[in-house]
């Protein structure tokens, strides 16, 4: 969904579990937690706090 990146909680090289919040996206004045779809290691984060994103933008790579 389009919105602004409110907070980036994961960094490249960090291990995450399925369902762990990686990015918080603010859209329509609501904070939406974007979670890891599976266990793994974050290989790249493509956004920074305050950045605007569109619906199909890649936010991070697992």
Task: Determine the strand fraction and express it as a percent band.
Answer: over 45%
Number of helices: 0
Uncertain residue segments: none
Order of neighbouring strands in the sheet with most strands: 4-3-1-7
Shape: globular
- Along the chain, the helix and strand elements come as EEEEEEEE
The helix fraction, in percent, is under 10%
How many strands? 8
* Main sheet properties: 4 strands, antiparallel
Classification by helices and strands: mainly beta
Alpha-carbon distance between the two ends? 19 Å
Rounded mean pLDDT is 96
Q: Report the C-alpha radius of gyration, rounded.
A: 11 Å
Provide a descriptive summary of the structure in words.
The chain is mostly beta strands and 62 residues long. The chain contains no helices and eight strands. The chain has strands spanning 3-8, 15-16, 21-27, 30-35, 40-41, 44-45, 52-53, 60-61. β3 (21-27) and β4 form a beta hairpin. It starts with a strand and ends with a strand.
Q: Layout of SSEs?
A:
Layout: E1 3-8, E2 15-16, E3 21-27, E4 30-35, E5 40-41, E6 44-45, E7 52-53, E8 60-61
Antiparallel strand pairs: 1-3, 1-7, 2-5, 3-4, 6-8
Q: Which terms summarize this structure?
A:
mainly beta, about 45% strand, single chain, about 60 residues
